[in-house]
Amino acid sequence: MQCPIARSLERVGEWWSILILRDALHGLTRFDEFQESLGIAPNMLTRRLNALVQFGLLERRRYSEHPPRDEYLLTERGRDFRPVVLSLLAWGNRHFAPEGASVMLVNRETGAAVDPILADPATGRPIDEPDYVLVPGPAASGRILQKYQAVADVRPARKRTS
To answer: 3-state class of 135 per DSSP?
Structure first.
């Protein structure tokens, strides 16, 4: 599929993968740390870690030869997943935690709770409808052009030339 959401879900859509990335963003790097944190079966953890390495979200690095042991470090691609995790955290707290938040995002200096927002870097304004819409990009297939052009009242994005 050409859809960037579908492509992303192909790589991280399995819930164990998202939880592994959450823990890696929290500083875990070793197999036993992930297993203890998640309570995941070793064979499932091995499969998920291998997939995250294959898709370039984690990098495997040997830290012991005898016995052979690897740690799993976030790549730039993996670190770029942080806003997704924070958005899921805020969404889950807002909609699926009637008892209240069990984990919160806070400002380290003030201790104040914060909600992540997506903002337009040019204006600083939050990105929400109806001011922002999805449109076909420069590499859009005919199907995507048809799907998104019908709802957008703007022109498709153009490739920038330097």
So the answer is: coil
Residue 28 region, left (φ>0) first, then alpha (ψ -120 to 50), else beta? beta
pLDDT one-digit tens code per residue, 55-108: 999 999 999 999 999 999 999 999 999 999 999 999 999 999 999 999 999 999
- CA dist list (Å): 46 to 31, 43, 115: 8, 5, 33
3-state secondary structure of 8: helix
Distance CA 78, CA 15 (A): 15
Determine the Cα angle at 63 with ends 62 and 66, to 5°.
Answer: 95
Q: Cis link prior to 83 (omega < 30° from 0)?
A: no
Determine the Cα–Cα distance for residues 144 and 95; give it in Å rounded to an integer: 31
The rounded distance, in Å, linking the Cα atoms of 96 and 18 is 17
Residue 150 scores a pLDDT above 80 = no
For 26-81, where are the alpha helices, taking DSSP H only? 31-38, 42-54, 76-79
Coil, helix or strand at residue 61: strand
The residue type found at 97 is A
Q: For residues 5-30, b (16+ Cβ closer than 10 Å) or e, as one string?
A: eeeeeebbebebbbbbbbbbeeebbe
